[in-house]
């Protein structure tokens, strides 16, 4: 089994609380309970935005996509913006195959996602 870790960082952006979640490793079915727990805990209490940094994801299967869908739905229920940042080629391909790249805003970097939150930009692609 490959190593998988998830870090959560809370940042203040223009007086807004933003949670940045960074999964590292292979996001397969064995690791999704940890990612789901960290994503949902980052939403309690609800921040203004949740940014998921996908720059260190080596593999993303349907269970990983499903976990992101659960987090995005919960964020929407809480009126929290949901953003993805810096997806690896593997993650970008999975998002495109499911057309989620047309639904969720995807930024080239975490800094660009945070800048969008700061500007009060759209939470969905235009």
From TrEMBL:
<comment type="similarity">
    <text>Belongs to the anti-sigma-factor antagonist family.</text>
</comment>
<dbReference type="Pfam" id="PF01740">
    <property type="entry name" value="STAS"/>
</dbReference>
<feature type="domain" description="STAS">
    <location>
        <begin position="18"/>
        <end position="117"/>
    </location>
</feature>
<dbReference type="InterPro" id="IPR003658">
    <property type="entry name" value="Anti-sigma_ant"/>
</dbReference>
<protein>
    <recommendedName>
        <fullName>Anti-sigma factor antagonist</fullName>
    </recommendedName>
</protein>
<dbReference type="InterPro" id="IPR002645">
    <property type="entry name" value="STAS_dom"/>
</dbReference>
<dbReference type="InterPro" id="IPR036513">
    <property type="entry name" value="STAS_dom_sf"/>
</dbReference>
